[in-house]
Structures are given as structure tokens and as C-alpha cells.
Amino acid sequence: MDGIIKVLYDMSASMILPTTAAFVIAAIGLNVHFGFTGLLNMGQAGFMLIGAYGYAISIGAGLPFWVAFFIAIFAGIAFALILGIPTLQLRGDYLAIVTIAAAEIIRMVGRASILNDITGGSNGLTGESFRNPFAEMSLFGDGQTQILWFEFDNTGVNGWWARAVTWFMVFVFAALVWLLMRSPWGRVIKSIREDEEAVRSLGKNVFSFKMQSLVVGGVLGAIGGVMFILPTSLQPDAMGRNMTFLIWTAMLLGGAATIFGPILGSIVFFALRLMVQGTMRLVVPDAWMNIQQTEQFSWIMVGVALMLIVIFRPQGMIGNKKELNFNV
Amino acid sequence: MVHQPVLALFARKWSRTFVALIVGLLVAALWTLSQPSSAFAADAATGPCVADSATGCFNGTIKGVGAGVKIVISGNGQEVTAVTDADGKWNAAVTVAGSYTLTLDETTLPSGVTMKSEATQTRDITLGFNKGAVFTVNGGTTDGGTTDGGTTDGGTAETATGFNWDRLAQQSASGLRLGLLLALASIGLSLIYGTTGLSNFAHAEQVTLGGLLAYTFANQLGLNIFLATAIVVVIAGFTGWLQDVIIWKPLRKKGLSLTQLIIVTIGLALALQYTFQMFYGARTLRIIMATPETIDIGPVTFTIESLWAMGVSIVVLAGVGFFLTRTRTGRATRAVSDNPALASASGIDVDRIIRIVWIMSAALAGLSGVMLGLVLNGISWQTGMQLLLLMFSAVTLGGLGTAFGALVGSLVIGMTVELSNMVLPGDFKYATALLLLIIILLVRPQGLFGRKERIG
């Protein structure tokens, strides 16, 4: 019984984690790329990583929080431009290959031992080296607070302050994307997804619109990266290819091309993964499957789930099939 | 992404696979006796500590020190001592999130072993997460010279930055080796792309599968390596057939778009990676336990296994070329790549051709996995994954025009990876190859040998 309660607690706790919120922000960015514009971005973790580095290194250099934050955003913009210029005029799968390659380049360069003094090499940067300016802005003061069955520090490493800020950002960005997508700009973006040639024949500069979309989603990715490292630490290998694939799974699970899809998808995704892992741990004897193996098993389930969603329910939980265009 | 001329498609698939292979080969060449570090290994470190909502786990592996080395983790009012096991693995649980100081007790190191990294490190941990910490030592009794995931790249590369002709020759030869092995793996990628239009992200896992099966047969069951290779190729080919029958053919009939199929391959890759991890663990496994013998050819030193791998690759590549250009089925394969509808109308059984292509690709990937395992002196669940992008780069780089272009793409990527090592730290060698891909797309998106109208 205790085991079941613990699994339920873990699941509910994962739903409000600041890292989950950061992940959601990156997923909203990817949704702008793929769901609304039809861009096959396979390097969203690269946007996160470059934003994280931009922020952490700036703080390390003694810059104030907001300057560092804008450097992170600027890094996301620059990365989007560099990726977009060679690929947005080409067929969609080129963008996929280039974004995945570019994300790997960022990771490999970041973890290079020659840059140890700047990026911390493969060990990354500790949370302490960049988190204080964020914690100092806390409006919550010291102490601990219990809400429902959750009790956390008000301001500490992984406390209510980080939760409040990241989830507030999720709310702001979701609203922003909602407004963007019902604006004239959003209608052009969505029609590019539907039929690029038709939009071009109306005299719109498709390349430019795609680029703008790539920048918007990339900036969201970079901000997601910053928020992701704040409660933890910057680990280049934590933001590798698998992170991108997780974001894809979560976005598709919730429903691409919807406002709430990425949010719902991410929350459900993490909770389900913990449920699978926790249940396996409770039900399956150690002799059959040890604890590492239950974790690996939960990852296998992630892969299988991704396949099944795409095959049988590409619109995800709340999406509309007509809104999707997989023909990039 | 509609059907492009056969050769174009062929070339493209080729390059991708080739890149992956080349990277693998390069890695192997550089660290003939050592194994490539894995970026992800730290995540997979094993041990009894399990991170959950109330626990965070520190863990790591110190290679070459054996059991009994102590690491003291202190901070946040806690002090925990971790001790390495026989493999140098250690882990420790803490119950308060925050920053900890990890101190390796140098007096517990075996005699003659000194610290290479800092003996005291600071790490932050969040409850529910694992956090790796890497300590490296000089003078350890390293099995194959492996160090823990994360730091490995340093050593070999940095000692080798000076220029001399011998080194140029060695690196070029290693580049050739990587290029050939990449080419071997890329053929399948290229063929599948050619006939079905699918960019198969799970192709790398076929490579890994080959290597791991070779470990099972040659190491665990003790079979002769040639016999084991033959068995692996057969099994790998069977998995290709099985995949086509249970996944790809039904999905083609269902009419899934190519983008959906790409995402399906990504899901498959993820599932397979962790399946491998579940059965084989996260360690790097050696197919042949004996210390490799080396041969000097002029200034170039190769292991016997490397020479065999290169020889086999050349023969097989030639065989595939012969098959595609001189046999009926091979010509039909190219026809399907060129225009499936027309091929079908001409009486070619397209489904049969695609099935043959899947079998062939999987078998070739399996073979390349065995070769990579021998050349790299080890295989792990992520060996293929690390090479996948190099394969894609090689296929794209070679261009959509010709199969020849893809082969050249693989060799170029192989050479780039190895030669960049002469001027840049080893950390950057894969990055250089990927950068080359992006630059090529910028100035010549159709690839080196492609024709411009084919890029959509």
C-alpha cells in the first residue's frame, strides 16, 4: 500500500516539477515549428542547450539576470537563423537532418574538454554557479510551505518559487502562441503548413515566414533550456538527442497543432512514465527485472508509445486530424 | 520527398549510413586499444541507489582502480561515503537536494595510481535524479583504457596535436578504414531510402544489434569469429525481413506519410536502444577478449582485426555494386528507386524488391556492427547511435546523384573525422564532420555529386 501511495505521490509531484514546466515551454516551441508551420525540427534540445549555455555562461561572467536571460534568447535567435538559412529553402527532411546535426554540434562543442573553463566540459556547470540571481528575485521569502500534500522550500533549489515562475511562463507562452496563431501572421504560418505553393502564389515570402516561425519556436526552446537548468544543473548530455525525441513524444501525445496539446502531453507523459516504472517495480519481482531494468523498460515503453501514437492516433489526445500535415 | 531517380536516392541513403560508420571507424582507429567514451554512459551507471522523490543518487565509474576507493560526499548536513566495486563503480544516495562536495580519498587509491582529475569536485543534485561525477586517474590498470562516460575524449586527442608525416599517414589510413566501415552501414540506409523514401533513424540500431550478437556468439558462446559473423549476418537479415513484414509493409499499406514513418523509426530506435541496454547492460562489451595484435605497414599501425574489417568491407561493397548493376534483381531494385509506379507497371514486384532491400540492409548493417565492434575493440548499446549522424551526413554529402557519390561521401566524412584530429582536439572530430554537412548544404545542397533539380 505504501508503495502505491509513493507511486501516486511521485506521479503527482512530477506534474508540477519546474523541469516539467521547462520541458513544456520547449514543447510549445516545437509545436510552433511542427504543429503550426510543418517544420521538421529534430534539434529542439539544441535550442534548449544553447539557451542554457547562453544564460549560465553570462551569469558566470558576472552579468545581471536579465542581461543573461536576453543573451539566452539572442542565442536562440542566432541559432535559428544559422539553421534556417541553409535549409528552409530545401525539402523538409533536410531541416530534420541539419537540426539534429547542429544540436549535436552544440553538445559536442559544449562538452569539449578544451572549453572546460567556460562550459565546464562534459561535467557541465553546477546549478550554484548560475542559480543565485534567480533565487534572489524570489518574492516568496524563506521557509517551507505545504500545499495539498506537497511540501517544498519557498525559494530553495527546487522550491515553490521555481515552480511558480516556470508554470506562469507556460501560461504566458501558451496564451502568446494562441494569440499569434489567430493573428494574420498565424494564418499565413498555418497555410504554409497546408500548401506552401499556394501561399507563395499569393505573394507571401514563404522563406521569411518559415524563418520567423523557426525563430519564435527556437526562442521558446532557449527559454525552456534556461528554466530547465535553473532547478538542476547544466549537463550537456542531458540535452542530447533523446531529449528532442522526448519532446516530440510529449507533443504528439497531447496533440500537435493545438494550444494545450504540448502542456497536457508533457504532464501525462512524465506521469505515465513514472507510473509504468513504479508499477513494474512493485509488481515484478527483482529477480525478473531489477530496478535499472524497470527504468529501461519504461524507456522502451516510451519508444513503443511514440510509434503507436504516430501510427494510430497522429492527432494525439486532443488534436484534430485535419489540422495536421505530415507531408513535409 | 517523392521518388527520385534510383541512383540519387541510393546515393543519399548511402551517405547517411556511411557517415555513421566512418565515425565509428575513426573512433576505433584513434583509440585502437581504448573504447570510445559514451556521452550517455553516465546516465546509465548502475548501482543499488535508485533516485525517487526522496532520494538523489550520485554515481560514477573510476576505471582502473578496482574495488575499495572511497569517495566522501558531504554537504547539506549529510555525509555519505561511497566505495568502488571491482569494476570501479560507485554510487551513493542523498536525501536532501542541493550542492555537495565529493572528495576522493587519495589514500585509498592503489599504489602507483595518481589523480588526473580534481580529487574534490562539487555537484548539485535534485531529488529524483541521478548525478554522475567523473574522477579519472593516471596509471590505473585500465581494461582497454576506458574511462567513464563523459571525460574520455581528452587523453588521446590532446597528446596528438603535433604534425608529422607519420601521423598524417596513420590518420589518413584510419580515415579510410572509418570511411569503408561507414560505407558498409550506409548502403542499407541508402537502399531503404531509395526504394521507400524513408529516412530510417533506427538503422543505427541494426548496426548495434550486429555487434552485440557477435559478442554473444563469439565471446559468450566462444564460437570462431568467422562463424559467429556468418551467423550474425543471417540473424540480422532475418530481423530486416521481420521488420518489413510486421511493421513497414503494413504501414505502407495503411498509407502513412513519410514524416509519420520517420517518427515511427525514431520510436523504434528508442525502444531498441533500451532493449539492448536491458539485455546487455550499459557496458562496452568486447567481442574478442585477446589483446589485439598489430601490424606495421610503413608508418601505419593497424590491428589485424582492422585489416580484416577493411578487407571484408571492400569485398562486400564490390559485391553490392555488382549486385545493383549486373543482376536482374539489382537492376529491378534501381528501377523501383527510380519510379515505383513505373517499375510496378513494368511487371516488377515492388513489394518483393522492398523486402529484399530490407533483408539486405539489415544484414549489411549487422555485418558493419561486427566489424565496428572488432575495430573499435568493443560494442555497446549506443555504438550505432553515435554513428547514425555520420551515416546521414555521408549520404547527404555524397549527393543524390550517384551511388559513387555516397561512397565518396563516406570516405570524405571518414577522412574529415580522422584528419580534423590533427589540428583540433579530439572532442571536435564528430562536430567537424557535421559542420561539413551543414556547409555543404549551404553552398551545394544537392551534395557533391547530385543534380540540382532533385532537392525539391
Q: Give the low-confidence spans of chain B.
A: 1-47, 142-161
- Rg of chain B (CA only): 23 Å
Could you state the order of secondary-structure elements of chain B as H and E? HEEEEEEEEEHHHHHEEHHHHHHH
Major sheet size, sense and barrel closure of chain B:
4 strands, antiparallel
Largest interface: A-B, 72 and 74 residues
In DSSP terms (H or I, runs of 4 or more residues), the helix count of chain B works out at 13
Topology, number of strands of chain B: 11
Low-confidence stretches of chain A are none
How many domains make up the coordinates of chain B? 2
Average pLDDT of chain A: 87
User: Outline of chain B, from the CA principal axes?
Assistant: globular
Structural class of chain A, by secondary structure, is: mainly alpha
Order of helices and strands of chain A: HHHHHHHEEHHHHHHH
Walk me through the structure.
The complex is a heterodimer of chains A (328) and B (456). Chain A contains 14 helices and two strands, in the order H-H-H-H-H-H-H-E-E-H-H-H-H-H-H-H. With 328 residues, chain A is mainly α. Chain B is of the alpha+beta class and 456 residues long. Helices cover 55% and strands 11% of the residues of chain B. Chain B has helices at residues 6-30, 154-159, 165-196, 203-220, 225-254, 258-280, 304-326, 328-338, 340-345, 350-375, 383-398, 403-423, 429-443; strands at 56-61, 70-75, 78-83, 89-94, 98-104, 114-115, 120-125, 130-132, 137-138, 294-297, 300-303. In chain B, the strands form four sheets. Chain B has a four-stranded antiparallel beta sheet with strand order 3-2-5-7, with no helix packed on it. Chain B has a three-stranded mixed beta sheet with strand order 4-1-8, with no helix packed on it. A two-stranded antiparallel sheet of chain B has the order 6-9. In chain B, 61% of the residues are buried. Classes of the chains: A mainly alpha (328), B alpha+beta (456). At the A-B interface, helix 1, helix 4, helix 5, helix 12 and helix 14 of A face strand 7, helix 6, helix 11 and helix 13 of B.
